[in-house]
Amino acid sequence: MKLIRTRREKLVFEISLSEKRLLFDVLKLYPLISATHHRLTKSARTAKHDENQKLLEESLAAQREENRKNVRAMLDEPGHFKEMSSGFQLTLSGPEIEWLLQVLNDVRVGSWIALGSPDPESGKKILFNEKLLPHFRTMELAGAFEMVFLDALSGH
Amino acid sequence: MAATATPEVRPAIRRDEKTDSSTDLEPGYLVICWNDPVNLMDYVTHVFQIVFGWQRQKAEVHMLQVHKQGKSVLARESMEKAEFYVHQLQKYSLHATMERDEA
Q: Which of its termini does chain B have fewer beta carbons within 10 Å around, N or C?
């Protein structure tokens, strides 16, 4: 998958059939992070903490629903991907890339959590086994697609 | 004309629990992004640019601070604005929280 041109503030990517299948495999997993994963504060010493934590969770749930609709639309509407001789052309606007980044990173972080939140720097290594291997694959795939979009946005 | 004595009525002073206290409106809350080994450095830089409207250079400084020092204070805001920023950062699955500024 690569950026081929920028047209009227939209980015046009070329993507092969196998890459498209991999992207769809990742998108279909959204969302992976649980609704209660994020905390508003570590200390719980802010005023109205419980009320505000609940509001945060509701707000994130609404955002997740919006992203889920966007994912569904991308997966269900073949018009997003224009067929070419060498694969497909995918045209995305800035806001579309932003929700795609949110979705991809949710899947990446969710896979990392499923792997036991490994952290090589603190000595918490990934325990490879058949059950965990798909999570590792998904985490790496989501990261690879993120980098394609980030490189395209930064003009690389 | 004779003056009539009217009883002086003073309004009762009642503290409204629902009214924001002055501390909520003061910039006494820190928006902090914490390090984790999963978020890509370029991704974190991009999110800082989007959420705070920063130039890439400033976003990179904070990203590197997160990476090397374990956390970076991204903003000092009122409670409401700090909540808004934390929500924006968490939408992108970054590890962000707001804490009272004890300094």
A: N
